[in-house]
Specification:
71% helix; 0% strand; mainly alpha
C-alpha cells in the first residue's frame, strides 16, 4: 500500500493507556469465545466504554462519519421503530434492538483505534492461531477417546463439541482460521524451498483443519473449502503450496470418512438423505416456514425476535417435537432472517451495508502494492465471508455468540483497509 502522510501526533499518556486497555480486551476476547457468552458480552461493553472515553480524550469522533456506521445508526432506528409494531411482547423485541448499536460501535472501535497498527494485528493473529490449535487438540482427543481434555463428553456419535457445550467447535474454528493465517503465510513466503514452505503451513494449521473435518459440521467444512478455494485463486504468491494443501486436505477428508463410520453417516448417508428429501427435511421445513412468515409481513417484517411467535401462531410444521419453540427460534440463514424479521426494507438496508463494506475492500485492494498487506487484507475478508456466505445454514445474526463474533471479525477486516479519508480521496 502506498505511504500516506496522515500527520501523526504525539500520543498523550491517557490515550496510550486507553489504547492498551482496548487492545488487551481484544486479546481476551479470543479465549472468551470459548469460555462463554457472558464474558464476551462484558468485553464488548468494556471495549465500547474504553473507546468512547478514548474518543473524548483524543477529541476524535471522525469514526462517526464512516458511511457504513451512519447506515448502522439508520438501521438501528428502523429496528427500534418496527419493534413497536410487533404482535407479541414488544418489550422482548426491544431487549434485542435497543442494545444492538453497541456491536457496530465495537467494530468501529477495533478498526479505528485498537487494531489500527499492523504489529498489533500480527500479535493477535498469532494469539488466535494458538487458541484454535488448543481447541483443535481438545476436540481431536474427544474424537479419539470420547471425552475432551476439558472434560466434555462427545455430544453425539457423529458430532463433536470439543470445549463447548454446544455443537459449534467446527464453525468457531472456521470463523477464526483465516484471521490466524496471515503471519503463517507471510513467514512461509520468505522460506527457501517448496517443501519447507508447505511443511511450515501444515505444521501451523493442520490441527485446526483436521478439527473442522472431525467435528461433523457440514457448514463449517463447506465454508472452509469454499474460502480455501478462493484463497488459492486470489493469492498467487503461494498458489502452488495452497493447491498441495487442498489436495492433502481432500485426502485426509476421504481417509477420515473411510475410517470413521460416524463421519460416513454424517457426511454421506445423512447428507444424501436430506438432499433427496429436502422438502421434508429440517432445512426444507425451516425454509418453507420462513417464506410463509415473511409473506405475512413482506415490507416491515414480523419484527426482531418475533419469528418464533409468528411460526407457532400460524401452526407451521415443527422442526422439533419436544422444544417449546418447536418450529425454531430463528430462520437459520442470516439473509432470510433479515427478510423475515425486518422485511424488504430491513433486508435492503443490510445489503446496502454489505455493499459499503465491499467498496472499502475493493478500493483498498486496488491500492495495495505490498505482498504482506495483500495477504492480510484478503484473508481478513475471507473470514468475513465465512459469516456472509449466503447458501448455508447459520446461527442467528442477532444472537450474542454469533453476533459478537461477526462484528469482531468485521472490525478486524476493516482495520486492514485504507483509512476513511484516504479511501474517500481515492473514490473521488
Amino acid at each position: 500500500m502506498k505511504p500516506y502522510n496522515l500527520s501523526k501526533k504525539i500520543i498523550p499518556q491517557p490515550l496510550r493507556l486507553l489504547d492498551n486497555i482496548g487492545i488487551s480486551l481484544l486479546f481476551l476476547m479470543i479465549p472468551a469465545i470459548v469460555l462463554g457468552r457472558g464474558l464476551m458480552e462484558a468485553i464488548v461493553g468494556a471495549t465500547v466504554i474504553v473507546f468512547i472515553l478514548r474518543s473524548l480524550v483524543a477529541r476524535d469522533f471522525s469514526w462517526a462519519k464512516e458511511a457504513w456506521f451512519i447506515l448502522c445508526i439508520g438501521i438501528w432506528f428502523y429496528l427500534l421503530t418496527i419493534s413497536f409494531m410487533v404482535d407479541h411482547d414488544p418489550g422482548d423485541t426491544l431487549k434485542r434492538t435497543l442494545p444492538w448499536i453497541r456491536l457496530p460501535i465495537f467494530a468501529v472501535a477495533i478498526s479505528h483505534a485498537f487494531l489500527e497498527k499492523r504489529e498489533i494485528r500480527k500479535k493477535l493473529s498469532l494469539w488466535t492461531l494458538l487458541i484454535i490449535n488448543l481447541v483443535a487438540i481438545d476436540t481431536i482427543v474427544q474424537f479419539l477417546t470420547g471425552t475432551s481434555l476439558t472434560g466434555h463428553d462427545k455430544y453425539h456419535h457423529f458430532r463433536l463439541n470439543g470445549p463447548f457445550d454446544e455443537l459449534i467447535v467446527g464453525i468457531f474454528t472456521t470463523h477464526l482460521f483465516f484471521l490466524a493465517l496471515p503471519p503463517v503465510l507471510i513467514s512461509a513466503s520468505h522460506l527457501e524451498g517448496f517443501f519447507r514452505r508447505i511443511g511450515f503451513v501444515i505444521l501451523c494449521t493442520g490441527l485446526p483443519a483436521l478439527c473442522i473435518i472431525l467435528s461433523g459440521e457440514r457448514s463449517a467444512l463447506m465454508l472452509m473449502g469454499i474460502c480455501g478455494l478462493i484463497m488459492v485463486l486470489s493469492i498467487k504468491a503461494l498458489r502452488k503450496e495452497f493447491v498441495h494443501c487442498l489436495i492433502l486436505g481432500a485426502f485426509i477428508l476421504f481417509a477420515a470418512i473411510s475410517l470413521s463410520s460416524s463421519l460416513q453417516g454424517r457426511f454421506i448417508s445423512q447428507t444424501g438423505h436430506q438432499i433427496n428429501n429436502f422438502k421434508d427435511s429440517a432445512y426444507g421445513r425451516v425454509f418453507k416456514n420462513a417464506t410463509t412468515v415473511w409473506a405475512h409481513e413482506p415490507i416491515f417484517g414480523v419484527g426482531p425476535r418475533q419469528y418464533r411467535h409468528a411460526c407457532k401462531e400460524k401452526g407451521l410444521p415443527k422442526l422439533y417435537s419436544t422444544k417449546s419453540h418447536a418450529c425454531g427460534l430463528h430462520v437459520h440463514n442470516i439473509y432470510m432472517e433479515w427478510l423475515v424479521e425486518a422485511g424488504l426494507l430491513g433486508f435492503s438496508f443490510f445489503l446496502g451495508l454489505i455493499g459499503l463494506w465491499l467498496s472499502r475492500f475493493r478500493v483498498t485492494l486496488k491500492d495495495i502494492g505490498d505482498l504482506n498487506e495483500d495477504i492480510e487484507l484478503k484473508l481478513a475478508w475471507l473470514a468475513v465471508l465465512t459469516y456472509l456466505w449466503p447458501i448455508t445454514s447459520s446461527m442467528s445474526f442477532f444472537s450474542n455468540w454469533n453476533a459478537i463474533g461477526f462484528w469482531l471479525v468485521l472490525g478486524w477486516a476493516l482495520s486492514t483497509c485504507l483509512p476513511r479519508r484516504v479511501y474517500e480521496d481515492l473514490r473521488s
